[in-house]
TrEMBL record, chain A:
Origin: domain of life: Bacteria
Lineage: Bacteria, Pseudomonadati, Pseudomonadota, Alphaproteobacteria, Maricaulales
TM spans (from-to): 7-26, 46-65, 77-96, 137-164
Subcellular location: Endomembrane system
Protein name: Sterol desaturase family protein
Annotated membrane topology: Multi-pass membrane protein
Tagged with keyword Chaperone: no
GO molecular function: glyceryl-ether monooxygenase activity; iron ion binding
TrEMBL record, chain B:
Originating species: Marinicauda pacifica
Transmembrane regions: 6-28
Keywords from the UniProt entry: Membrane, Transmembrane, Transmembrane helix
Protein name per the record: Uncharacterized protein
Domain of life the protein comes from: Bacteria
Taxonomic lineage: Bacteria, Pseudomonadati, Pseudomonadota, Alphaproteobacteria, Maricaulales
Length: 317, 151
């Protein structure tokens, strides 16, 4: 077995250099924005994610070591296997990511990454602390190992996938050439994914290749007339990392405690984020439905609306 | 990362890098605290975040740091609050407020929402503060009532 390097560890200096470059570029051009308290929160979440990965990662390692013996094929460390594993891993990533937005148990973990109202390279590092405990790796990480790809190869291509996703968290890069936008996940596509505008909710789940969204009907292009508003549907009133990390978990605990039947327990736990037994809360689907109903009843001129909007996100001169 | 020494060095370097990046961010600036200039701004914030919310009577806080907005023809109260360069909004329904205290023209509001639990609003004058305190009292949680949940 070759001694595969850790792509994320190797990329850390580049991450830091690119964040510094984007910060300076943002200051000079005003085309992006960094806010110290938000940056601090994002980077602290990133560091916590690394620490928790080291502390809790053994759960996943143990699982894949156990699973390897049931593999259907014996695929060696050959170049085409790396390439195939990279593409298949990205396919699995698409579904895992989609489920992370539609199942509250996994959303409670993933919401951390979406909790910033800014969108810059530091947002890429705003990552959850408790991911291994959600057992998502069992449901989504097992497939490639069961096919026969070595766990170390799967971990390696998975890390490459995450490294790729770093640079797309930026407002600095507008649109790339058409063929790239057609095939690859780009800053434009991923801005849409991070936006809370109703028309953008639950779209563009891709990691590296946007083709999965195009294939499975979740692709939404960025519109010049609908600027992205970042964050979550109910933005947090704090930059406290503990609240960022735990708020949705705490929400699940409180809701499950208030449940009056097993159906309600399941709904609060595994239903879509925002699910409630009486429908009094809004989940993405209902928000989109309400928004579409409103649009057809009373068309809104987005340009006109943004002109009367609040003084938000204005970079200092 | 199997070598504990490398691990410790990576963690220390990460902590130093984070501190450095945040200090650089502070030094460079490039952002301004969000401010509401008009009731229309508050209405836009709320209609953006809460689909279908139609703003009615609005009171901006001193310095434009936020606003209370009654819903037109509805029984909800919209809240806009600045958090750095951005705004956070909430729409309050019956039982969403834990307590309201008024001291002169300052209102201290505690919400049954652990992601946005407390805020202070300095109103234009005491009469306005009293009026909105009264309205907010209408959303007080009953003893032993539920907590608002984030979604």
């Amino acid at each position: 077995m070759p001694n595969l390097p850790d792509p994320i560890l190797l990329a850390i200096p580049a991450f830091i250099a690119l964040i510094v470059a984007e910060m300076i570029y943002a200051r000079v051009t005003g085309r992006a924005q960094f806010e110290p308290s938000d940056t601090a929160a994002s980077l602290t979440m990133g560091l916590g994610n690394t620490v928790s990965g080291l502390a809790l990662g053994f759960v996943a390692v143990a699982w894949f070591t156990y699973l390897e013996r049931f593999a259907l094929l014996e695929i060696g460390y050959v170049w085409w296997a790396f390439a195939l594993a990279f593409v298949l891993d990205d396919f699995v990533y698409y579904w895992a990511h989609r489920m992370a937005h539609t199942v509250r148990w996994w959303w409670a973990d993933h919401v951390v990454h979406h909790s910033s109202q800014h969108y810059n390279l530091s947002t890429a590092l705003r990552q959850p602390w408790l991911s291994p405990l959600t057992l998502k790796f069992i449901f989504f990480g097992s497939w490639l190992v069961l096919i026969g790809f070595p766990p170390a190869m799967v971990a390696f291509v998975g890390a490459l996938n995450l490294v790729y996703q770093f640079w797309i968290h930026t407002e600095v890069v507008k649109r790339l050439p058409y063929p790239v936008e057609m095939v690859m996940n780009t800053p434009s596509h991923h801005r849409v994914h991070h936006a809370t505008n109703p028309c953008y909710l639950d779209s563009n789940f891709a990691g590296v290749f946007i083709i999965w969204d195009r294939l499975f009907g979740t692709f939404v292009p960025e519109s010049a007339t609908e600027p992205c508003r970042y964050g979550i549907v109910k933005n947090l009133g704090t930059h406290n990392p503990m609240v960022i990390c735990l708020h949705e978990w705490w929400g699940i605990v409180k809701d499950v405690r208030s449940a009056r039947s097993p159906r309600e327990v399941i709904g609060y736990w595994l239903g879509p984020p925002g699910w409630s037994p009486d429908g009094s809360r809004d989940c993405s689907k209902t928000i989109k439905k309400k928004w579409h109903a409103l649009q057809s009843a009373q068309p809104v001129d987005v340009d006109e609306q943004s002109e009367t909007g609040p003084e938000q996100a204005a970079p200092a001169e | 990362m199997n070598d504990p020494l490398i691990l410790i060095l990576v963690l220390i370097a990460s902590a130093v890098s984070i501190t450095g990046l945040v200090l650089l961010n502070r030094w460079l600036g490039g952002w301004q605290p969000a401010r509401l200039e008009s009731p229309a701004g508050a209405a836009t914030c709320l209609s953006n975040d809460i689909v279908g919310f139609r703003a009615g009577e609005t009171a901006l806080f001193d310095q434009g740091t936020g606003a209370f907005v009654m819903e037109q023809g509805g029984d909800r109260l919209g809240l806009v609050w600045t958090r750095g360069a951005r705004f956070v909004t909430r729409v309050l329904s019956d039982g969403d407020v834990a307590s309201v205290d008024r001291e002169g023209r300052t209102l201290t509001l505690k919400l049954c929402d652990y992601t946005f639990s407390r805020m202070e609003a300095v109103m234009a004058d005491e009469a306005e503060a009293e009026l909105w305190a009264e309205r907010l009292n209408g959303f007080l949680r009953a003893e032993g009532g539920r907590d608002a949940q984030p979604a």
